[in-house]
Amino acid sequence: MIRDLCDGKLNGGEIGSTEITFTPGTIKGGTHVADTKTAGGYYPQGGGEVVVRMSPVKELSPINLTERGTVTKIYGRAFVAGALPIKLAKDMSAAAVRCIRKEIRDLYINIQPVREPDDQAVGTGSGIIIVAETSTGCLLAGSSLGKRGKNSDKVGIEAAEMLLKNLKHGGTVDDSLQDQLIIFMALAKGVSRVKCGPITLHTETAIHFAEQLTKAKFTVTKSEEEDPSNDTYIIECHGMGMINSNL
């Protein structure tokens, strides 16, 4: 995908490869299609589609995500497709709600059971995603996938426990979003700060390579504002201030 976006050259870009050589060219606009060739879509057979539309900007502004606020909404979807009955989705949803209710009693929890249309799903699969929205606009989530022989209640409980874990640390982003912000912080102009839970290995890796590839400098410090028992950190970055020369 990146090769196509910039008319570059790529060797070794296939499943099973342990080394790639990438030589970038000039970035250009257009419409591009990327296929992961694995079940990065709809597990276990794949076939999920994501459409992304992007408009270029001259430069990225820094972000300051340090105030989580209070949880105002919890919602999500429990889904089945193919040969699986809607009852499994209802069971996942009910189990997740019961689990969350033990910790959060005063909010309405809306997890919709859904059966994907047969003409849109290429295989049999199931899963659940639950999102918590906060008063400052933060979104934190938990998710889990079903598989043959795995109890549907367990799938729902796994997603609920992941969400509760992400809420407990007091950060503004969940474990899955944490590492994906690193490249944007590195490219932005100015100082970005993000409050998060324990630093994931993905984030450590992203910081390592962002510092190698840009002039950005990252620091990670334990957050002093929180209850000492909370594992909360501040990721700070002095971004390189990259300018889009094509605009």
UniProtKB/TrEMBL annotation:
Domain (RNA 3'-terminal phosphate cyclase): residue spans on this chain: 2-40, 41-220
One Pfam family here: RTC
InterPro entries in alphabetical order: RNA3'-term_phos_cycl_insert (IPR013791), RNA3'_phos_cyclase_dom (IPR023797), RNA3'_phos_cyclase_dom_sf (IPR037136), RNA3'_term_phos_cyc (IPR000228), RNA3'P_cycl/enolpyr_Trfase_a/b (IPR013792), RPTC_insert (IPR036553)
Coiled coil stretches, renumbered: none
Domain RNA 3'-terminal phosphate cyclase insert, chain residue ranges per copy: 66-167
PANTHER family to which the protein is assigned, alphabetical: RNA 3' TERMINAL PHOSPHATE CYCLASE (PTHR11096), RNA 3'-TERMINAL PHOSPHATE CYCLASE (PTHR11096:SF0)
Protein name listed in UniProt: RNA 3'-terminal phosphate cyclase
Protein's organism: Willisornis vidua (Xingu scale-backed antbird)
Name of the coding gene: RTCA
